[in-house]
Amino acid sequence: MDHDDRQVVGQDLMRVQFRWPVGMPLCRPLGDVLWEVRSSLPSARIARVIFCFFDEKLVALHGFIKKTQKTPQADIDLALKRKKEHLS
């Protein structure tokens, strides 16, 4: 990602972290205590960061550029795997 895109994702993560709870359009639940930060990038792409909370801290589990309308199950599964690794 270029600098401007990273800035937007970082600002959106910061908004979620310091203004929790946050709803749509910035953040939405994915189930299994996973949430998704929804970022519209200056490069006309869409980025997502899947996260959870652990000990009252936001833990970013997986970030990706969205290419389909629905969040791919493989990305959710990867985030769940990382969540499980983090909690053990």
Strand content: 35-45%
What's the shape? Answer: globular
Uncertain runs: none
Order of helices and strands: HEEEEH
Overall radius of gyration: 13 Å
Overall pLDDT confidence: 94
Number of helices: 2
- The biggest beta sheet, please? 4 strands, antiparallel
Ends apart, CA distance between termini: 31 Å
Strand order of the largest sheet: 1-2-3-4
How much helix, percentage-wise, in residues?
Answer: 25-40%
What class would the helix/strand composition place it in?
A: alpha+beta
Features:
88 residues, alpha+beta, 4-stranded antiparallel sheet, 2 helices, 36% helix
Describe the protein in words:
The chain has 88 residues and is an alpha+beta fold. It has helices at 3-19, 73-87, and strands spanning 27-31, 34-40, 46-54, 57-66. Helices cover 36% and strands 35% of the residues. It has a four-stranded antiparallel sheet. The longest helix is centred in the first third of the chain and has 17 residues, at 3-19.
